Structures are given as structure tokens and as C-alpha cells.
Amino acid sequence: MIIQAIEVKRISVPLKKPFKTALRTVHSLESVLVKITCDNGMVGWGEASATVVITGDSIESIESAVMNTMRPQLIGLNLLAYERVFQTLHQSMVGNTSAKAAVDIALYDLISQRAGMPLYQFLGGYRDQLETDYTVSVNSPKEMGEDAALYLKQGFNVLKIKVGKDNIEDDILRIQEIRKSVGNQVKIRLDANQGWNVKEAVQSIRKMEDMGLGIELIEQPVKAHDLEGLKRVTDSVDTPIMADESVFSPAQALQVLQNRAADLINIKLMKAGGIYKAQLINQLAEEYGIPCMVGSMIESRLAVSAAAHFAASKKNITRYDFDAPLMLLHDGIEGGVTYEGRLMRMPEESGLGIRSVSIWEGEI
Q1: Catalytic residue among 100, 165, 268, 314
Q2: Which of 231, 295, 298, 319 is deepest in the core (most CB within 10 A)?
Q3: Which residues hold substrate (predicted)?
Q4: How many CB atoms lie within 10 A of CB 75?
């Protein structure tokens, strides 16, 4: 099972509604698809989302990393010795985690196809369906309340609310308006995307606790590098705190875990460099008794299917943030995970379960 060819293609797909966080506003999916072909004719698919403000990876850097650095080192390797292949991939260059993730996903697609198993079963097969949350972009309180009510009507009972863009008072008004719109039947998670400082985070979280707003967890309240500040927030409030941008690598996860700087960890394949390293992060967290969520950037159903396969395979992964494909105007992917409202079902086909990628040919 020799790697014979590696190809890339840029894709761009408009969103139904702009996606706004404390870090950026996104109007369309911008990513790079990766296609790996082996000498036996098998094809594996991967995808890298360009998220400069989080991973530092651009469309151009992803393409260059895959084609000019990773490709020459991987061509000719035998995927039946896949430990060697993944070691080669991750030692090929420093950083460039999104590019590594795209190649990693395609490799796992091929390996699990060769095994004749859906990828989630190949990785452990703990469950065969998931329930995703839905993200409410940061806007005016009124618009966010209306969006939250719409998502509730569509069947989503866990909402991830983007905050941290303006001042704390505005964020609290946003949460109050959303709570008024959806009542107490919906779980609310907040994602500040590093938008607060330590004092602001502690004061606002305590205020929301006193107001009884019922926040399930708060994600990355402070700057990614500020582990001391993250720990201060975690130790000062009752609401569980989740590390996201603070954790890219297993080594960073270990720092968070050893210092008890967060109550949960959000694993994303684009941060971890793919499934190979994501598994190590989850295993470390499990040993420390810390549950994980698996999320995504703005990605197509191809990359999200890979993340969902990983999430479904492990007991310690208890929360799922896989709404990105539902935000796209078009799909272009046949196969992979399927959505029934908030419920996601894993495919029965081997590998990722991707049957065709029409977007590769530019048919959208």
C-alpha cells in the first residue's frame, strides 16, 4: 500500500450567515482539500481549514507545506507501516498543524479503508452517533436572541454562544436575551475566544452565576499563552472552564493538566495536526480525569467527518461542536457523517465513508 500521489485543491464555499467571534468575521469557508492515492488504487481524502488568527495557517502556507515539504517525504512510503508514516509526517516540519491535519486525515481514511472498517470503529468504536451543539455568532443582543430561538426551533438543545468581542456588560446582556428567548430547556456554553482578561473573566462569570443564567461551561476566557491566568479563572469560579487555543500539542495539554489550569479541553484536529496527535491529547486528559470536547473550525463535511469519527471512537470525549457544515450554502461532499437536526450518525462504509467529492472538480 505505497503512497503514490498527493494532490491539493483550494475550495471556497459561502456561509448562510457571517460567522462572528471575538477574533474574526468569516463570510465563506476557505480550505484546502488533499487527495492521496496509493499504488493499489485506493484514495484518501483530507482537508485543512485556513484560520490565520488561530493556527497561523493560510491557504498559501497549507498548499506549500503539503506539496513542497510533506509530499516529497511521504511519497513511496508503505501505509502498512503507518507508525513510521505518521512519525515522518509530524517530524517533516515545525508547526503547520492544519496542513499536517489534512494529510493525517487522508492517511487515516486510507488505513481504515484497507482494514475494511469505518474510521470510528478502527479507532475504538465507542459510539456510533453524536449530538452537536449550534453556534450563535456574536451580534447585538436582539439578533443573538432571535438566532438562538431559530436554532432551538430547528431542534438544537445545546447552544455555543460567542462572546468577548466588546465589554463584559454587553456580553451579559447578550446572554440574558438568549436565555429569555430559549428558556431554561437549552444548555448554554460560552466561548470568549481569548477576549477577556483575568479580572474581567472572574467578575463576569461570578456575576452570571449570581444571576442564575445557567452557563454549562466557558471556553478560553483569557489569552492562549496565559496558563497562569487561565488557572486563576478556573480556581476562582464554580462554572467549568475549558481550554481551547491554549492546547495545540500533547505537551501543551500536559502543562494544562499538571497545573489544573482548566476543567476540560477542546481538541481540534486543525490545532493538533490531525488524529494521530489528537489521540495522545485525549489519552493524557483521560489519565488526569479531564473530559474533552472535539470541535472544528469553519470546515466542510469532509474534515468534520474526520473529527466526528475521532470523537465517536473515544469514551472520554463527551461534547461535540460539529455545526460548521450546517452553516454552508452548499456541500459538495457525498458520504461521511449525516445530520438529522442535532443528531449525527456515523457512516457504515469503511474509512471516512466519503463516496464522492464533487467540490474537487469545481462543480459547486
Answers
A1: 268
A2: 295
A3: 24, 135, 160, 296, 298, 321, 323
A4: 13
The answer to whether the CB of 282 falls within 8 A of the CB of 269 is no
On whether 171 is known to bind a ligand per the annotation, the reply is: no
162 is annotated as an active-site residue: yes
Does residue 6 have a known ligand-binding role? no
Residue 244 among known ligand-binding residues: yes
- Tens of pLDDT along 8-50? 999 999 999 888 887 778 889 999 999 999 999 999 999 999 9
Domains, the chain, ranges and CATH?
A: 2-116 (3.30.390.10), 121-360 (3.20.20.120)
Judge whether 137 is annotated as a binding position.
no
Annotated binding-site residue? 323: yes
pLDDT of residue 364: 35
pLDDT score of 130 more than 90: yes
Of 162, 165, 231, 277, the active-site residue reads 162
362: confidence class by pLDDT, cuts 50, 70, 90: low
